[in-house]
């Protein structure tokens, strides 16, 4: 049984950027998104996704998986190792989905993965449809974090699993200082140069720094209706896997 945590005040609930702003930003960088992810993380993002999928597999054998804020579908593709009947990815960015569909077609996976335009705050599936609801580097972009998590809980069957892979902030010296310098100074410059978008990779560090990570995010999961919530820190706390279950 998960230990009880003191609930954080309502005023600390995370509110992201407006949906329209996030949609336009990801549309603008869609062609460069995968390459930049791998460059900026030095390939670590692939290992993080593998770890996240391995964790799901250690807890549950899913038949139907929902990937929220799927982007170009990297997590959806990785999750096929679990042997589901189907993976459905949703995202608000139509151009990110176009890139994802091209990738899935190239890999010959069109019969196993479906990508649809959809909003985390209004998921167009019935209650209890999925065994797993997951997201990688997308939850911090939800316009309303708790509302999105509640929708993910709603579409899970009882006993279904939530998995969220997100950036988090390390607390130990010197990684904390190096991380802050990289995210605030180095990453925006590389992102702007490669993508040509002056705002997108300034948004990224600000969204990470404002995201309620670690214990605060576990509290939001509890508020959204999940139980047994846990955090697994990756690479010194640069990223974290959060998971929990629908009662």
Please supply descriptive tags for the structure shown above:
alpha/beta, seven-stranded mixed β-sheet, about 250 residues, disordered N terminus
Quick take:
The chain is α/β, with parallel strands linked by helices and 247 residues long. The chain contains 9 helices and 7 strands.
Quote the distance from N terminus to C terminus.
12 Å
Question: What structural class results from the helix and strand content?
Answer: alpha/beta
Q: Give the helix level as a range of percent.
A: 40-55%
Radius of gyration: 17 Å
The helix/strand order is HHHEHEHEEHEHHHEE
Order of strands, widest sheet: 3-2-1-4-5-7-6
Give the number of helices: 9
Mean pLDDT across residues: 89
Uncertain regions: pLDDT < 50 for 5+ in a row? 1-12
% residues in beta strands:
15-25%
- Characterize the overall form: globular
Outline the biggest β-sheet: 7 strands, mixed
Count the beta strands: 7
């Amino acid at each position: 049984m998960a230990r009880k945590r003191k609930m954080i005040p309502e005023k600390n609930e995370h509110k992201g950027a407006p949906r329209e702003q996030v949609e336009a930003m990801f549309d603008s960088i869609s062609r460069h998104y995968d390459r930049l992810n791998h460059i900026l993380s030095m390939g670590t993002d692939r290992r993080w996704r593998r770890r996240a999928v391995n964790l799901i597999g250690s807890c549950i054998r899913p038949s139907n998986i929902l990937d929220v804020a799927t982007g170009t579908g990297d997590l959806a593709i990785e999750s096929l190792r679990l042997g589901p009947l189907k993976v459905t990815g949703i995202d608000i960015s139509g151009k990110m989905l176009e890139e994802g569909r091209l990738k899935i077609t190239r890999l010959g996976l069109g019969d196993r993965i479906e990508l649809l335009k959809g909003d985390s705050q209004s998921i167009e599936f019935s209650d209890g449809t999925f065994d797993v609801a997951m997201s990688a580097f997308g939850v911090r972009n939800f316009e309303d974090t708790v509302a999105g998590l509640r929708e993910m809980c709603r579409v899970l069957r009882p006993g279904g699993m939530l998995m969220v892979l997100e950036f988090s902030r390390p607390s130990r010296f010197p990684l904390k200082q190096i991380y802050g310098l990289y995210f605030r100074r180095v990453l925006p410059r590389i992102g702007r140069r490669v993508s040509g978008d002056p705002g997108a990779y300034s948004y990224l560090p600000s969204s990470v720094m404002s995201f309620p990570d670690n214990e605060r995010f576990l509290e939001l999961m509890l508020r959204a209706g999940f139980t047994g919530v846990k955090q697994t820190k990756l690479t010194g706390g640069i990223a974290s896997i959060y998971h929990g279950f629908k009662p």
